[in-house]
């Protein structure tokens, strides 16, 4: 396994599980270039606060992560978001205002809340209300998120609400993002119901009484998210413990080249950066697609070219601690998203200690502010100090945050978020076709079939099964 992020860890863990189930003696080794495992999952305990320097939660309606937690005996450690703060805010003319109740990403289920919102102009509200009259799309080709939203809900809905919500997930440009690759459920809503409003209203009526539905939930579906009592690194730590019981984890060990073993015709020779030449019967590469492309350049130039064509965005997360008395805004939500049209230098702010209980002592607050992304890549060229000053200035202006932070942590994620641009699904299909010529090579990660933690877990576990099946004799 090359890569010690959540995909590589899930792959190594699943390979060990499957080998035990098959009563097969398989040696599993995992190589991670840095000294820390977990990739974008990184929790620190600071001044009595739980600071998530990367991913802070995962969605539970995709079962892979929840099922993995069960097998790791972490079920009792899971916590849900705070029910009283499942509302989201959006910046409008410099002020945080609530996202209309029932507006789930880009499907309004309560027209009354849209009509009452100051976010939209009278014409914008009328355009959203007319969505039920917009005919279904008849073309079959891929469509961008922006084109879909403009077609169904109008320009204001895109610019003032959907764009910042989508940026909060993909840090991407909705003009380029593929709807089919990122949010396919909305294609199905249009296809089945002919209207997002009708589909959302029906879903709301069906789930209104369930525990997953909150009367004041808006924006992202916060009721479906979970984390761990002591932070997301609990998942990483549990995986590493299990892997090290039967396998080997190499920290601070990068891989320089990967080539086929000429002497056997099967398996691979792996050269580490410190010059060691190691032989393996199968390899799972769980790295970003651009780094995977370089690793596979000599092995398969066509596969390498397809991988290199997947673009990435970079971002930084600035985690800050504050005395609650130093913040004017009540922070009565899970977070705030910021439209590009507001011309701010931050993407969003997660009210971390409101979103999950136990993240800060009484009277203290933890905020997570996002900077950069596909629309503001130049900000990542600034120093940590400069980025911190930008964040502090924006938080002061938007939320009335005064005084010195009790702590500051800046985490940079250079080229960490793949951009699922229009045509992404076709590219992934070509990658999988080319990969079929290498049955003992498998690729895992967030570059292919989903960017969330459950997607990465599923990716790692699926390819571990594929790699192991190529080794085991067929019955």
Describe it for me?
By secondary structure, the chain is an alpha+beta fold. The protein folds into 3 domains: 6-41 and 231-310 and 421-471, FAD/NAD(P)-binding domain (3-Layer(bba) Sandwich); 57-98 and 219-230 and 312-418, Alpha-Beta Complex (Polyamine Oxidase, Chain A, domain 2); 100-215, protoporphyrinogen ix oxidase, domain 3 (Orthogonal Bundle). It is 36% helix and 20% strand. The chain has 16 helices and 21 strands. It has a 7-stranded mixed β-sheet with strand order 7-6-17-18-19-16-20. It has a 3-stranded antiparallel β-sheet with strand order 4-10-5. Strand 12 and strand 13 (268-272) form a beta hairpin. Helix 1 (6-21) packs across helix 10 (233-246), helix 1 (6-21) crosses helix 16 (453-471) and helix 11 runs antiparallel to helix 12. The two termini are 26 Å apart.
List keywords for this structure.
protoporphyrinogen ix oxidase, domain 3; 16 helices; Polyamine Oxidase, Chain A, domain 2; alpha+beta; 36% helix; 475 residues
């Amino acid at each position: 396994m090359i890569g010690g992020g959540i995909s590589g860890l899930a792959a190594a863990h699943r390979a060990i599980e499957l080998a035990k189930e098959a009563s097969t003696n398989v040696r599993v080794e995992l190589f991670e270039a840095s000294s820390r495992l977990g990739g974008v999952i990184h929790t620190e305990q600071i001044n009595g606060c739980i600071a998530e320097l990367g991913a802070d939660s995962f969605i539970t309606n995709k079962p892979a992560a929840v099922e993995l937690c069960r097998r790791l005996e972490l079920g009792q450690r899971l916590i849900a978001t705070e029910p009283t703060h499942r509302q989201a805010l959006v910046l409008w003319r410099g002020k945080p205002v609530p996202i209309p109740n029932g507006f789930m990403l880009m499907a309004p289920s309560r027209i009354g809340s849209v009509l009452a919102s100051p976010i939209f102009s009278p014409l914008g509200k009328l355009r959203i209300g007319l969505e039920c009259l917009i005919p279904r799309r008849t073309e079959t080709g891929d469509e961008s998120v922006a084109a879909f939203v403009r077609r169904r809900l109008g320009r204001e809905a895109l610019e003032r609400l959907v764009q910042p919500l989508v940026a909060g997930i993909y840090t991407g440009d909705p003009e380029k993002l593929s709807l089919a690759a990122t949010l396919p459920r909305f294609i199905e809503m249009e296809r089945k119901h002919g209207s997002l409003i009708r589909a959302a209203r029906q879903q709301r009526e069906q789930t209104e009484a369930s525990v997953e539905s909150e009367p004041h939930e808006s924006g992202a579906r916060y009721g479906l998210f979970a984390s761990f009592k002591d932070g997301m690194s609990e998942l990483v730590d549990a995986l590493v413990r299990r892997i090290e019981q039967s396998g080997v984890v190499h920290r601070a060990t990068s891989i320089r080249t990967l080539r086929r073993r000429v002497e056997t015709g099967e398996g691979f020779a792996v050269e580490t950066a410190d010059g060691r030449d190691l032989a393996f019967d199968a390899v799972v590469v769980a790295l970003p697609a651009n780094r995977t492309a370089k690793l596979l350049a000599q092995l398969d130039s066509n596969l390498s070219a397809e991988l290199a064509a997947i673009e990435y965005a970079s971002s930084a997360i600035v985690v800050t601690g504050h005395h609650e008395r130093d913040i004017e805004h009540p922070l009565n939500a899970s977070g705030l998203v910021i439209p590009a049209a507001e011309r701010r230098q931050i993407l969003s702010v997660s009210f971390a200690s409101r979103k999950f209980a136990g993240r800060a002592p009484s009277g203290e607050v933890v905020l997570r502010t996002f900077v950069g992304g596909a629309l503001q890549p130049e900000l990542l060229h600034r120093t940590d100090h400069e980025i911190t000053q930008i964040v502090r200035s924006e938080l002061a202006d938007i939320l009335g945050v005064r005084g010195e932070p009790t702590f500051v942590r800046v985490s940079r994620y250079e080229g960490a978020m793949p951009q699922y641009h229009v045509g992404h699904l076709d590219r992934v299909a070509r990658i999988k076709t080319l990969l079929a010529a290498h049955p003992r090579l498998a690729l895992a990660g967030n570059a292919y079939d989903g960017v969330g933690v459950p997607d990465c877990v599923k990716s790692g576990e699926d390819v571990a099964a594929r790699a192991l099946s190529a080794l085991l004799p067929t019955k």
